[in-house]
């Protein structure tokens, strides 16, 4: 298929672009490089340097058959401090993109939604029927786009899939997580083992979990990427599907720390700190619908996710 990938210079977008190219698709990446890296765009993909807000001239007459839309602001704590960035980029930007798709008659979109749409859910595991009630502007902005896409499916016959990612980790060879500043748990823990800092920080030890630290569902990025290829195949005109993507297994921050210690052989000292604003206690996916609708199942466990993230970090350090 002839595909447009927004955000293909970022972590998840670059991994999925590499998987799409390996599967034989013709891929063009559109990215403003605000947080992504030009060198992260896989060889073999065309590149357009533009914001999604300005995507219209790049879509018209190009014959794209589908858009995979990764470009977004995606940090919970940033969205608490600066919500305007989230409404402007994630909602206004996506509205411009979806309107450009309509003008260009592009029939299909796969959208990166998030578990943050559910807020502080009572249910665990979280199903797609769990009520949405985001507790930060990041989750609210992604939920707004889910609603936007649903309305376009009903009114304009768009085929849309909102994939609600839980926590994503790991790498695919040279494609991995390279944020600056880095806020995510696994790379922060591994950066201590790599000697970039002296100790990691555990945000919150008073959560109602087995060891007091927050519980998350860490999915390997290549398992996540496979679901996008399957979602493209399963897309149906006029239908908006919302599908959770997670392993179905929850790990506390301390359990992830233990996995990082095992993989790296490093002690990784930890400082205990107060909770981070906007962080829910527990986010664990039910992936029953993904199994049924996409024929998808996660294949890689937490240890592999950590090992591949560690391999990627060592590649980055070796290249410096
Ligand atoms: N944490 C620490 N120390 C750190 C970093 C994180 O203790 O140095 C804790 C956080 O407080 C949280 C957990 O580890 O409890 C996971 O934090 P991450 O920053 O790795 O990920 P988040 O759960 O905040 O968010 C991620 C994505 C979001 C997505 C969410 C859904 O960044 O886009 O998962 O589960 F919405």
Short description:
The chain is of the alpha/beta class and 320 residues long. Helices cover 38% and strands 18% of the residues. It folds into two domains: 2-169 and 218-245, Rossmann fold; 185-216 and 248-285 and 296-319, Alpha-Beta Complex (UDP-galactose 4-epimerase, domain 1).
Taking the sheet with the most strands, its summary is:
7 strands, parallel
Average pLDDT, all residues: 97
Coarse morphology: globular
Q: What is the tally of helical segments?
A: 10
How many beta strands in the DSSP annotation?
14
CATH architecture label name of the largest domain = 3-Layer(aba) Sandwich
How does the helix and strand content classify structurally?
alpha/beta
Protein name: UDP-glucose 4-epimerase
Family: Belongs to the NAD(P)-dependent epimerase/dehydratase family.
Keywords: Carbohydrate metabolism, Isomerase, NAD
Catalytic activity: UDP-alpha-D-glucose = UDP-alpha-D-galactose
Describe this structure as you would to a colleague.
The protein is of the alpha/beta class and 320 residues long. The protein folds into two domains: 2-169 and 218-245, NAD(P)-binding Rossmann-like Domain (Rossmann fold), CATH 3.40.50; 185-216 and 248-285 and 296-319, UDP-galactose 4-epimerase, domain 1 (Alpha-Beta Complex). It is 38% helix and 18% strand. It contains ten helices and 14 strands. The chain has a seven-stranded parallel beta sheet, sandwiched between helices. Helix 5 links the parallel strand 5 and strand 6 (159-165). The longest helix has 21 residues, at 83-103. The protein is globular and about 55 Å long. The two termini are 36 Å apart. 50% of the residues are buried. The structure holds uridine-5'-diphosphate-4-deoxy-4-fluoro-alpha-D-galactose. Uridine-5'-diphosphate-4-deoxy-4-fluoro-alpha-D-galactose is lined by residues 74, 76, 114-116, 166-167, 183-185, 188, 200-204, 214, 216, 253, 276, 279, 283. Pathway: Carbohydrate metabolism; galactose metabolism. GO terms for molecular function: UDP-glucose 4-epimerase activity. Its cofactor is NAD(+).
């Amino acid at each position: 298929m002839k595909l447009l990938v927004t955000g293909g210079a970022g972590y998840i977008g670059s991994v999925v672009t590499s998987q799409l190219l390996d599967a034989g698709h013709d891929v063009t990446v559109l990215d403003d490089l605000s947080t992504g890296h030009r060198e992260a765009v896989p060889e073999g993909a065309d590149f357009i340097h533009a914001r999604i807000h300005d995507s219209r001239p790049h879509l018209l007459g190009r014959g794209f058959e589908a858009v995979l839309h990764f470009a977004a602001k995606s940090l919970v704590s940033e969205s608490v401090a600066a919500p305007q960035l989230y409404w402007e980029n994630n909602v206004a930007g996506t509205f411009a993109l979806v309107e450009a798709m309509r003008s260009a008659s592009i029939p299909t979109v796969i959208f990166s939604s998030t578990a943050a749409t559910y807020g502080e859910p009572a249910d665990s595991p979280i199903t797609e029927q769990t009520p949405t009630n985001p507790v930060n502007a990041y989750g609210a902005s992604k939920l707004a786009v889910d609603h936007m896409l649903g309305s376009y499916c009903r009114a304009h016959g768009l085929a849309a899939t909102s994939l609600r990612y839980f926590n994503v980790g790991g790498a695919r060879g040279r494609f991995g997580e390279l944020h600056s500043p880095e806020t995510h748990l696994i790379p922060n823990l591994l950066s201590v083992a790599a000697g970039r800092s002296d100790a990691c920080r555990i945000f919150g030890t008073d959560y109602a979990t087995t060891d007091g630290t927050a519980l998350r569902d860490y999915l390997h990025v290549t398992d996540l990427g496979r679901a996008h290829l399957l979602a493209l195949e399963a897309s149906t005109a006029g239908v908006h599907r919302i599908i959770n993507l997670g392993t179905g297994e929850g790990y506390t921050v301390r359990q992830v720390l233990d996995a990082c210690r095992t993989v790296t052989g490093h002690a990784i000292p930890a400082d205990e700190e107060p909770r981070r604003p906007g962080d829910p206690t527990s986010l664990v996916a039910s992936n029953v619908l993904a199994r049924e609708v996409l024929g998808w199942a996660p294949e890689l466990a937490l240890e592999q996710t950590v090992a591949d993230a560690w391999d990627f970090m060592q590649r980055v350090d070796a290249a410096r």
